[in-house]
Design goal:
Helices cover 54% and strands 5% of the residues. With 299 residues, the chain is mainly alpha-helical. The chain folds into 2 domains: 121 residues; 96 residues, Cytochrome c-like domain (Cytochrome Bc1 Complex, Chain D, domain 2, Orthogonal Bundle). Strands 1-2 form a two-stranded antiparallel ribbon. A hairpin with a 2-residue loop joins strand 1 and strand 2. The longest helix is centred in the first third of the chain and has 64 residues.
């Protein structure tokens, strides 16, 4: 169990390390972009300072001659170039020849923001594929799934290892605790009364469960086995698909606690007399298995 816990902690530590590396990589990308924007802004400021200095040294006439005085800022010039804006009076030059119901279309370029996103997605995709598919620093979704499944498998094994051994017909024991018998009674009342009566007295379908005679062997192991596998040839279904082993143990213990209660209208005994420790256990066909069953119960 300790080894499983250590392995789970190691897997989690590896995942956190890789997540931290991814965060550092993304942060570095943001810093690079921010630095580029800052450089553009700084360059613009330097140009403005140079304009002011030249204006002071050479005057407005010299500035107009080299077309620096009325020059638009860099970002405006880039926007005009990217948008390829045409004045209204020149729109006829970029009109398509076709017309649909009197509606004509201008040959405008795609919006720069859309183009920037498109090419930015391509660039991002190149880095993404290189980082997640060809780099050892990142884990993909398939690897994350494998890590999660291995962690879950170890947790399940650790949980099962911490539980008691599963109950079956070879190791089941009689329960005497009142709370466990009460749970068994609840199961009996909801599942067994149609064939065995409210108090286990039996009816036209099933046998009396309160006497010492049993059709398929008495004792906790035989009763547990009969409930678990059923007696299909006689109409009793297998309850293994509807009841957990622990619940079968509870209801079998409750049935055995009914021994000697002598309820009214009890059905006549059926099967063979069962005495603890003197007869072998029997399978569902009534054949002895050669096993003895020793336990104490109220009779």
């Amino acid at each position: 169990m300790q080894q499983a816990a250590d392995a789970a902690q190691s897997t989690e530590a590896t995942f956190l390390t890789r997540a931290f590396q991814n965060m550092i990589f993304n942060l570095a990308g943001v810093i690079i972009v921010a630095a580029f924007v800052a450089l553009l802004y700084l360059n613009s400021m330097i140009l403005q300072v140079e304009k002011i200095r030249m204006l002071q040294e050479h005057g407005a006439e010299a500035m107009e001659e080299i077309k620096l005085l009325d020059r638009e800022p860099l970002w405006k010039r880039l926007a005009n170039k990217l948008w390829k804006r045409a004045p209204v009076e020149k729109e006829k030059d970029i009109l398509f020849d076709h017309s649909y119901d009197g509606i004509q279309e201008l040959d405008n370029v795609l919006p720069p923001w859309w183009v920037a996103l498109f090419y930015g997605s391509i660039i991002f995709g190149v880095f993404y594929i290189g980082y997640y598919h060809f780099s050892d620093n990142a884990i993909g979704s398939a690897q994350e799934y494998e890590i999660a499944m291995k962690k879950a498998e170890k947790e399940v094994k650790a949980y099962l290892a911490s539980q008691a051994a599963p109950v079956d017909e070879t190791n089941v024991e009689m329960l005497t605790d009142a709370s466990q018998l009460s749970l068994g009674e609840s199961i009996f009342q909801s599942k067994c009364t149609p064939c065995h009566g409210q108090k286990g007295e039996g009816n036209s379908i099933g046998p009396n469960l309160t006497d010492k005679y049993w059709l398929h062997g008495g004792g906790i192991k035989n009763v547990f086995k009969t409930i678990k596998y059923g007696v299909p040839e006689k109409g009793m279904i297998s309850w293994s698909s509807q009841l957990r082993p622990a619940d079968i143990q509870r209801v079998a213990s409750y049935i055995l606690s009914l021994q000697g209660t002598n309820p009214p209208n009890a059905k006549e005994p059926q099967g063979e007399l069962w005495e603890e420790g003197k007869e072998g256990e029997k399978d569902n066909n009534g054949a002895e298995t050669g096993k003895g069953d020793k336990l104490s119960m109220n009779q």
